[in-house]
Protein backbone atom coordinates (compact mmCIF):
# COMPACT_ATOMS: atom_id res chain seq x y z
CA UNK A 1 0.00 0.00 0.00
CA UNK A 2 1.34 3.40 -0.96
CA UNK A 3 1.78 5.83 1.91
CA UNK A 4 -0.15 8.59 0.13
CA UNK A 5 -2.54 7.67 -2.66
CA UNK A 6 -4.12 9.86 -5.28
CA UNK A 7 -5.98 9.09 -8.46
CA UNK A 8 -3.67 10.08 -11.30
CA UNK A 9 -6.52 11.42 -13.44
CA UNK A 10 -6.89 13.37 -15.55
CA UNK A 11 -9.89 14.85 -13.80
CA UNK A 12 -11.72 16.91 -16.40
CA UNK A 13 -14.23 19.58 -15.33
CA UNK A 14 -15.89 22.45 -17.22
CA UNK A 15 -14.98 26.03 -16.44
CA UNK A 16 -16.97 27.32 -13.47
CA UNK A 17 -17.55 23.88 -11.95
CA UNK A 18 -16.28 22.53 -8.64
CA UNK A 19 -13.22 20.29 -8.90
CA UNK A 20 -12.87 17.72 -6.13
CA UNK A 21 -9.46 16.16 -5.56
CA UNK A 22 -9.02 13.31 -3.12
CA UNK A 23 -6.14 11.77 -1.20
CA UNK A 24 -5.82 8.94 1.31
CA UNK A 25 -2.87 8.21 3.59
CA UNK A 26 -1.80 5.08 5.39
CA UNK A 27 0.01 6.38 8.51
CA UNK A 28 -2.59 7.11 11.17
CA UNK A 29 -0.03 9.17 13.10
CA UNK A 30 0.27 11.79 10.36
CA UNK A 31 -0.27 15.27 11.73
CA UNK A 32 0.04 17.85 8.96
CA UNK A 33 -1.45 17.80 5.49
CA UNK A 34 -0.63 19.89 2.45
CA UNK A 35 -1.82 20.48 -1.09
CA UNK A 36 0.61 21.67 -3.74
CA UNK A 37 -0.08 22.73 -7.32
CA UNK A 38 2.51 21.93 -9.97
CA UNK A 39 2.32 23.30 -13.48
CA UNK A 40 4.13 21.31 -16.16
CA UNK A 41 7.88 21.95 -15.97
CA UNK A 42 7.58 24.09 -12.83
CA UNK A 43 8.20 23.52 -9.14
CA UNK A 44 5.38 22.71 -6.66
CA UNK A 45 3.55 25.68 -5.16
CA UNK A 46 1.85 25.43 -1.76
CA UNK A 47 -1.93 25.91 -2.07
CA UNK A 48 -3.34 24.87 1.29
CA UNK A 49 -2.36 23.23 4.55
CA UNK A 50 -4.57 21.76 7.26
CA UNK A 51 -3.82 20.30 10.68
CA UNK A 52 -7.21 19.67 12.28
CA UNK A 53 -10.30 17.69 11.31
CA UNK A 54 -12.86 19.65 9.36
CA UNK A 55 -12.78 22.25 6.62
CA UNK A 56 -10.40 25.11 5.95
CA UNK A 57 -11.27 27.69 3.31
CA UNK A 58 -9.01 30.13 1.45
CA UNK A 59 -10.60 31.96 -1.44
CA UNK A 60 -11.79 29.43 -4.03
CA UNK A 61 -9.99 26.57 -2.26
CA UNK A 62 -11.30 24.40 0.58
CA UNK A 63 -9.25 21.67 2.22
CA UNK A 64 -11.10 18.95 4.11
CA UNK A 65 -9.52 16.55 6.60
CA UNK A 66 -11.01 13.42 8.14
CA UNK A 67 -8.38 11.73 10.31
CA UNK A 68 -10.67 8.85 11.27
CA UNK A 69 -11.02 7.91 7.59
CA UNK A 70 -7.43 8.99 6.79
CA UNK A 71 -8.76 11.14 4.00
CA UNK A 72 -7.86 14.60 2.73
CA UNK A 73 -9.55 16.47 -0.07
CA UNK A 74 -9.22 19.73 -1.95
CA UNK A 75 -12.21 21.49 -3.48
CA UNK A 76 -11.70 24.18 -6.10
CA UNK A 77 -14.79 26.30 -6.67
CA UNK A 78 -15.43 28.23 -9.89
CA UNK A 79 -12.65 26.30 -11.65
CA UNK A 80 -10.68 28.27 -14.23
CA UNK A 81 -8.54 27.01 -17.14
CA UNK A 82 -5.55 28.43 -15.24
CA UNK A 83 -6.25 25.85 -12.52
CA UNK A 84 -5.23 23.10 -14.96
CA UNK A 85 -2.19 21.51 -13.32
CA UNK A 86 -1.12 18.51 -11.28
CA UNK A 87 -2.19 18.66 -7.62
CA UNK A 88 0.06 16.93 -5.11
CA UNK A 89 -1.15 15.79 -1.72
CA UNK A 90 1.54 15.55 0.99
CA UNK A 91 1.55 14.47 4.64
CA UNK A 92 4.07 14.71 7.47
CA UNK A 93 4.47 13.72 11.08
CA UNK A 94 3.74 10.03 10.99
CA UNK A 95 5.44 7.18 12.78
CA UNK A 96 8.32 6.96 10.32
CA UNK A 97 9.55 10.51 10.89
CA UNK A 98 8.45 13.95 11.93
CA UNK A 99 10.28 15.82 9.17
CA UNK A 100 9.70 13.81 6.02
CA UNK A 101 7.06 15.15 3.66
CA UNK A 102 5.49 12.15 1.94
CA UNK A 103 4.01 13.04 -1.46
CA UNK A 104 1.35 11.34 -3.49
CA UNK A 105 1.97 10.90 -7.19
CA UNK A 106 -0.48 13.69 -8.01
CA UNK A 107 -3.82 14.16 -9.77
CA UNK A 108 -3.84 15.96 -13.09
CA UNK A 109 -6.70 18.45 -13.35
CA UNK A 110 -7.95 19.72 -16.69
CA UNK A 111 -10.42 22.60 -16.71
CA UNK A 112 -12.21 22.87 -20.06
CA UNK A 113 -13.08 26.39 -21.28
CA UNK B 1 9.27 38.00 3.20
CA UNK B 2 11.19 34.81 2.63
CA UNK B 3 12.61 33.86 -0.75
CA UNK B 4 14.49 30.83 -2.00
CA UNK B 5 16.92 30.87 -4.89
CA UNK B 6 18.26 27.92 -6.87
CA UNK B 7 20.75 27.90 -9.69
CA UNK B 8 21.36 27.06 -12.41
CA UNK B 9 17.87 26.62 -13.89
CA UNK B 10 19.08 24.05 -16.43
CA UNK B 11 22.26 22.05 -16.70
CA UNK B 12 23.57 19.55 -19.23
CA UNK B 13 26.48 17.47 -18.02
CA UNK B 14 28.41 14.47 -19.41
CA UNK B 15 28.47 11.16 -17.56
CA UNK B 16 31.29 11.08 -15.02
CA UNK B 17 31.51 14.84 -14.57
CA UNK B 18 31.13 16.54 -11.17
CA UNK B 19 28.05 18.44 -10.03
CA UNK B 20 27.37 21.38 -7.76
CA UNK B 21 23.89 22.84 -7.31
CA UNK B 22 23.37 25.72 -4.92
CA UNK B 23 20.36 26.91 -2.98
CA UNK B 24 20.04 29.95 -0.73
CA UNK B 25 17.19 31.21 1.43
CA UNK B 26 16.61 34.83 2.43
CA UNK B 27 14.40 36.41 5.04
CA UNK B 28 14.57 33.70 7.69
CA UNK B 29 17.12 32.20 10.05
CA UNK B 30 17.90 28.59 10.91
CA UNK B 31 15.46 27.12 8.40
CA UNK B 32 15.10 23.41 7.71
CA UNK B 33 16.48 22.78 4.21
CA UNK B 34 15.70 19.95 1.82
CA UNK B 35 16.85 18.55 -1.53
CA UNK B 36 14.33 16.59 -3.63
CA UNK B 37 14.54 14.93 -7.01
CA UNK B 38 11.64 14.44 -9.38
CA UNK B 39 12.30 12.04 -12.26
CA UNK B 40 10.27 12.50 -15.44
CA UNK B 41 6.65 11.53 -14.80
CA UNK B 42 7.46 10.45 -11.26
CA UNK B 43 6.81 11.69 -7.74
CA UNK B 44 9.05 13.76 -5.49
CA UNK B 45 11.83 11.87 -3.71
CA UNK B 46 13.53 13.38 -0.66
CA UNK B 47 17.32 13.14 -1.02
CA UNK B 48 18.73 15.13 1.93
CA UNK B 49 17.51 17.34 4.71
CA UNK B 50 19.26 19.63 7.19
CA UNK B 51 18.13 21.19 10.46
CA UNK B 52 21.28 23.30 10.95
CA UNK B 53 24.79 24.17 9.78
CA UNK B 54 26.82 21.04 9.14
CA UNK B 55 23.86 18.76 9.98
CA UNK B 56 22.90 16.61 6.99
CA UNK B 57 20.70 13.54 6.88
CA UNK B 58 20.58 11.33 3.82
CA UNK B 59 17.41 9.59 2.77
CA UNK B 60 18.59 7.56 -0.19
CA UNK B 61 22.07 6.01 -0.60
CA UNK B 62 23.56 7.18 -3.88
CA UNK B 63 26.49 9.02 -5.41
CA UNK B 64 25.14 12.41 -4.35
CA UNK B 65 26.10 14.37 -1.25
CA UNK B 66 24.90 17.56 0.41
CA UNK B 67 26.52 20.24 2.52
CA UNK B 68 25.33 23.23 4.51
CA UNK B 69 28.31 25.55 4.95
CA UNK B 70 26.18 28.51 6.08
CA UNK B 71 22.83 28.86 7.81
CA UNK B 72 20.89 29.66 4.64
CA UNK B 73 22.99 27.88 2.03
CA UNK B 74 22.48 24.28 0.90
CA UNK B 75 24.63 22.59 -1.75
CA UNK B 76 24.06 19.35 -3.64
CA UNK B 77 27.16 17.71 -5.10
CA UNK B 78 28.43 14.70 -6.93
CA UNK B 79 31.96 13.64 -7.83
CA UNK B 80 30.87 11.57 -10.84
CA UNK B 81 27.43 11.84 -12.40
CA UNK B 82 25.54 8.78 -13.64
CA UNK B 83 22.89 8.68 -16.37
CA UNK B 84 20.35 7.86 -13.64
CA UNK B 85 21.05 11.21 -11.96
CA UNK B 86 19.02 13.03 -14.62
CA UNK B 87 15.96 14.76 -13.24
CA UNK B 88 14.42 17.87 -11.79
CA UNK B 89 16.20 18.87 -8.57
CA UNK B 90 14.29 20.96 -6.09
CA UNK B 91 15.46 22.75 -2.98
CA UNK B 92 12.92 23.56 -0.28
CA UNK B 93 12.83 25.24 3.14
CA UNK B 94 10.52 25.24 6.14
CA UNK B 95 10.40 27.04 9.49
CA UNK B 96 10.38 23.74 11.35
CA UNK B 97 9.84 20.06 10.71
CA UNK B 98 6.04 19.95 10.50
CA UNK B 99 5.53 23.32 8.83
CA UNK B 100 4.84 23.82 5.11
CA UNK B 101 7.80 23.40 2.81
CA UNK B 102 8.39 26.04 0.14
CA UNK B 103 10.18 25.11 -3.05
CA UNK B 104 12.68 26.91 -5.24
CA UNK B 105 12.27 27.05 -9.01
CA UNK B 106 14.35 23.89 -9.48
CA UNK B 107 17.26 22.78 -11.65
CA UNK B 108 16.59 20.55 -14.64
CA UNK B 109 19.63 18.29 -14.98
CA UNK B 110 20.29 16.26 -18.12
CA UNK B 111 23.12 13.76 -18.26
CA UNK B 112 24.53 12.86 -21.67
Using brief descriptors, characterize the structure shown.
heterodimer, A: 113 residues, mainly beta, 6-stranded mixed sheet, 5-stranded antiparallel sheet, 11 strands, 0% helix, 52% strand, globular, B: 112 residues, 7-stranded mixed sheet
Question: What would you note in describing this structure?
Answer:
The complex is a heterodimer of chains A (113) and B (112). Chain A has strands at 4-5, 11-14, 19-25, 32-38, 45-50, 54-58, 61-66, 71-76, 85-92, 102-103, 107-112. Chain A is mainly beta. In chain A, the strands form two sheets. In chain A, strands 2, 4, 5, 9, 10 and 11 form a six-stranded mixed β-sheet that branches. Chain A is globular and about 45 Å long. Chain B has 112 residues and is mainly beta. Chain B is built from no helices and eleven strands. In chain B, strands 2, 4, 5, 6, 9, 10 and 11 form a seven-stranded mixed β-sheet that branches. A four-stranded antiparallel β-sheet of chain B has the order 1-3-8-7, with no helix packed on it. Chain B is globular, with a radius of gyration of 13 Å. The chains are: A mainly beta (113), B mainly beta (112). The interface between A and B is medium-sized, with 21 and 22 residues.
Global geometry of chain A? globular
Oligomer: heterodimer
Number of helices, where a helix is a run of at least 4 consecutive DSSP H or I residues of chain B: 0
What order do the SSEs of chain A take from the amino end to the carboxyl end, as H and E? EEEEEEEEEEE
Radius of gyration of chain A: 13 Å
Radius of gyration of chain B: 13 Å
How helix-rich are the residues of chain B, as a percent range? under 10%
Strand content of chain B: over 45%
Alpha-beta classification of chain B: mainly beta
The tally of beta strands of chain A, per DSSP, is 11
Profile the largest sheet of chain A.
6 strands, mixed
Largest beta-sheet details of chain B: 7 strands, mixed
Q: Estimate percent helicity of chain A.
A: under 10%
Structural class label of chain A:
mainly beta
- Work out the largest interface and the residue count of each chain: A-B, 21 and 22 residues
Ends of chain B: how far apart? Answer: 39 Å
